[in-house]
Amino acid sequence: MDKSERKRARRFRAHRRVRRRVSGSEERPRLAIFKSLRYIYAQVIDDVQGVTLVQANSKEDGIRGDGTKNLDAARLVGEAVAERALEKGIRRVVFDRGGYIYHGRVRKVAEGARSKGLEF
Predict the structure, then answer these.
(1) N or C: which end of the chain has fewer CB within 10 A?
(2) Looking at residue 85, which CATH number applies to its domain?
């Protein structure tokens, strides 16, 4: 097992630990984060019905650009998902960091979402 496989397995175990405790409902859906090496994605999910309510990612035109894989793009993704959630009447969510450490791009998504009024 090489280093990248070990890291992926560690993240998967951490994500399972988080998901045991964190579940989205209609009142408080789950803000889930996924990041690849190039992009970052955020979704607001109602786990009871199994539907994605809103989403944003760094591949979108308003966010894409020279800073696609950096902290600025992550903050813009957080702001975009928060604006879309507020349009649908969602103010409170639970944060699912997806097994990633709360640091860097994951933290910037959270800060961007909070700055636009999403509560978690």
Answers:
(1) N
(2) 3.30.420.100
Q: Could you tell me if residue 120 is inside a domain?
A: no
Number of folded domains that form the chain: 1
Query: What's the Cα-to-Cα distance from 104 to each of 2, 69, 81, 111, rounded to whole Å?
Result: 24, 11, 18, 11
pLDDT at 67: 58
Q: How far apart are CA 50 and CA 63, in angstroms?
A: 27
SS3 for 38? coil
pLDDT, tens only, 41-53: 999 999 999 999 9
Q: Is the pTM of this model over 0.70?
A: yes
3-state secondary structure of 17: helix
Range(s) of the domain holding residue 33:
3-115
DSSP assignment of 66-108, as one string? TTTTSHHHHHHHHHHHHHHHHHTT--B-EEE-TT--SSTHHHH
